[in-house]
Specification:
Layout (H helix, E strand, L loop, with lengths): L10 H11 L29 H20 L3 H15 L6 H14 L3 H14 L4 H13 L3 H14 L4 H19 L5 H8 L13 H11 L6 E8 L2 E8 L4 H11 L6 E6 L5 E3 L3 H28 L14 E7 L13 E2 L11 H14 L5 H21 L4 H48 L4 H4 L10 H24 L4 H20 L1 H8 L3 H4 L6 H48 L16 H27 L4 H14 L4 H7 L1
């Protein structure tokens, strides 16, 4: 079953066939509708005991429903498809197809809401089902929602751009929407129906209730018969039967089902002159049906004439349309002369087509006789690419392009520096993981001694690291330093790398202070690999603390310039966006570009750096205090001053000390 009142149906060809056949629809020709199969007792739960029987009955019900639908007995067809859906269940492979059948029935009965519900169920089971998507668009149209119908069919066009029926539907609906938008109130549906050629369910004919059902049943008293096609592929002749109100896509699907594994095919019919004509669409198929009807009429006249001469009674003509003869031919992939587009019945997924050697030999001979250069298109493409390259070079060397290149280079430079900076942060995280383990060990040790968690804080946790753990931590700190240096080599004003480098020096100094062994191992390495120049452990600790302070000072001095450059870049970007908006018509000419408040790096980053600087001064003060030097107090006062400058509260400072 297909959706009702779709564009480009076979009704015209069916009527032409009945007219040509003459007596094909006389009295006694109407068949009695077969009764639908009764519903199975037990419902879906019986599937657990006899799955095969249920699936078999479901297939029978679906075939029964298809026959009812072809005869125009839509209510009986709907009953069969509903029973079939209950038997197969929602997870069956054909659940989406059966839901489409139910939607077609509801749409023919004038119940667009139920049809839309079935389409949604089909798309939920099989999201890429083009038939369900087409039906859903028709349901929206039947409900009078042309905009939603256009959105649905446009989404299908994006998913399946080669589907011809979707393209025709989209063009028809777009004409209707444009006409409806331009029409005055109260005349919108009439204008849309006129623009769509009258082949529409508008206005709002989808939900008509009992009156709509009666009118639909009355309109279906004379349903079109089935279309029978005798298809020839080489010596293989098979009968194909499709609904007369179907589409050309239905015919192609039916032929593909009859010849699985036959490769890419095309259909041809013989015209009155004996020429084989490719069936490229519904119009060609109608012509083939009309020729078959004319041929059948002539044969009927000759049969009646012969019967009259022999004194016999002519046999009554067969019911419905005559059998249409079509020739299926294999399409060579990449052939120079071959049907394309809608005329092609594509091969199934994974299906391969073998080509004989004589085809290549004949193609080569054909090329030689006509003087066709098979590589000419390659030369033309190369020439086109060369000219395009020349044009790009002319643009790229213009004065207007240079600022764009400079901006792009700055962005790439920043991204490269940021990548190296983050790489260094990974090494710092690995090193800090060792330190966190040492802190937990210190807490556990203090708790075991009965001193509580605070007592463990009085002892340096790094002193509890094993020799191997301390060496691993120092290795990771050195690897982080290398990445920070590389980041600054790429972008010398990358202040984040300077701040992180200063913190790395601070943490390495604390490690040397707590672990004599790791300090000795570092001193044993060449000077270029140490990260400091001192020759003793104490001097190395002092040098690393001094390096940390130098990095913090350098980053603070760098902040104003970086902040100004970022503010200027933001201003230029805002002006460009405003100019583009003026060209697009979304902004008034002469108006000022909206300026966002730039980020104040000095205000945001300075407090963080000052806190880290104060931590270094505090550690230096503690070292001097343990040595008995009187200079510890001046360093501690300086550290407190840094904490206050950073905006730390008096309570926080007191708790830290």
């Amino acid at each position: 079953p297909q959706r009702a009142a779709a564009p480009g149906r076979l009704h015209a060809a069916a009527r032409c066939g009945r007219a040509a056949m003459g007596k094909g629809s006389g009295k006694g020709g109407k068949k009695k509708a077969p009764a639908p199969l009764p519903a199975l007792e037990g419902g879906v739960s019986a599937l657990d005991s006899d799955t095969q029987e249920f699936l078999k009955r479901g297939a029978e019900l679906r075939a029964q429903g298809a026959r009812h639908f072809q005869l125009g007995e839509v209510e009986a067809a709907l009953s069969c498809f509903e029973q079939c859906g209950r038997l197969l269940g929602k997870k069956h492979a054909d659940a989406a197809l059966v839901a489409c059948h139910r939607a077609s029935c509801h749409l023919r009965l004038g119940n667009a809401s139920e049809a839309l519900r079935e389409c949604n169920a089909a798309l939920k089971a099989r999201p890429n089902d083009s038939r369900a998507a087409l039906l859903r668009a028709r349901c929206h149209e039947a409900k009078g929602h042309l905009h939603q119908a256009l959105e649905a069919i446009s989404a299908l066009r994006k998913a399946a751009p080669a589907l011809e029926e979707a393209r025709v539907e989209e063009e028809r609906l777009r004409r209707g929407v444009d006409a409806m938008n331009a029409a005055p109130a109260g005349k919108k549906h009439e204008a849309a129906a006129a623009a769509m050629g009258g082949n529409t369910l508008l206005p709002g004919q989808g939900d008509k209730g009992a009156k709509g059902d009666a009118a639909a049943a009355k309109a279906r008293r004379g349903p079109p018969p089935s279309l029978r096609i005798r298809c020839h592929l080489d010596d293989d002749v098979r009968m194909v039967e499709v609904p007369a109100h179907g589409t050309f896509e239905d015919v192609k699907r039916a032929v593909r089902a009859k010849y699985p594994g036959a490769g890419t095919l095309a259909l041809k019919y013989q015209d009155e002159a004996g020429m084989m004509v490719t069936v490229a669409g519904l119009a060609d198929l109608r012509t083939a049906i009309q020729l078959a009807a004319v041929k059948a009429m002539r044969e009927r006249i000759e049969a009646e004439k012969a019967a009259k001469e022999g004194g016999e009674v002519a046999k009554p003509p067969p019911m419905g349309l005559p059998v249409t003869e079509l020739q299926a031919v294999r399409v060579v992939k990449g052939g120079a002369i071959a049907p394309v587009g809608d005329a092609v019945i594509p091969a199934e997924d994974g299906e391969e087509v073998e080509m004989d050697d004589w085809m290549f030999d004949f193609a080569d001979l054909f090329r030689q006789q006509l003087g066709v250069d098979p590589d000419a298109h390659v030369a033309i493409q190369a020439e086109g690419m060369e000219r395009c390259q020349d044009a790009l070079e002319a643009v790229a060397t213009s004065p207007e392009a240079q600022p764009l290149f400079d901006a792009a280079a700055d962005k790439f430079q920043e991204v490269a520096a940021l990548a190296l900076f983050n790489w260094g942060n990974v090494h710092m995280c690995c090193a800090r993981k060792k330190g966190e383990g040492a802190k937990q060990a210190a807490r556990d040790k203090a708790a075991g001694a009965g001193g509580g968690a605070d007592a463990g804080a009085q002892e340096d946790p790094l002193a509890l690291l094993s020799a191997d753990e301390a060496l691993t931590m120092d290795t990771k700190l050195r690897e982080a330093e290398v990445k920070y240096k590389e980041s600054l080599a790429v972008k010398d004003d990358f202040y984040e790398a300077l701040v992180a480098w200063g913190q790395q020096c601070f943490e390495r100094a604390k490690l040397f202070q707590a672990q004599e062994g790791v300090a000795k191992a570092a001193l044993a390495r060449p000077a270029a690999e140490r990260g400091f120049t001192a020759g003793t452990r104490e001097a190395a600790v002092d040098e690393l603390y001094a390096l940390a302070i130098d990095k913090y000072q350098a980053s603070l001095a760098m902040l104003p310039g970086v902040s100004e450059r970022q503010a200027e870049a933001a201003r230029v970007a805002a002006e460009k966006a405003h100019a583009a908006a003026v060209r697009a018509g979304s902004a008034e000419p002469g108006s000022s570009a909206p300026q966002e408040q730039p980020q104040d790096l000095v205000k945001e980053v300075t407090p963080q750096v000052l806190v880290m600087w104060g931590n270094v001064l505090y550690e230096q003060s503690a070292i001097l205090s343990r040595k008995g030097s009187s200079e510890w107090k001046a360093l501690l006062i300086d550290a407190v001053r840094k904490f206050k400058d950073a905006g730390c509260g008096a309570g926080d400072i007191k708790g830290a000390l």
